[in-house]
Amino acid sequence: MAKLTVSRLMASPSFINYCFNTNEADVAYWNHYLVQNPQQQPIVDEAKEIVKMGGWILTAEKEKAGTWKRIHEAVFDAHAVRCSFYNAIACRRLRKLESLLY
Fold first, then answer.
1. Which end of the chain has fewer surrounding CB within 10 Å, N or C?
2. Which residue ranges of the chain lie beneath pLDDT 50?
């Protein structure tokens, strides 16, 4: 393996799997690597913290998009209800006017 750096670790799909514990083989590999290379622990810890922070930011961005979607839908639904209410009033008035004319 080339010299281990934070940026190389962050670019490694295997390391990202290790950080999020999503692939047993990758987790086993990195645990074994750290047992064999304990001097690399500070670099691994720093990269892992950054990767996890990045994952949190991505999750927050997805949740933010979902929240804005729900807000938009709620506003649209409220607008539709309000329009229906006003349309109902207008229809009643129109029927009343028609009854007066005929």
1. C
2. none
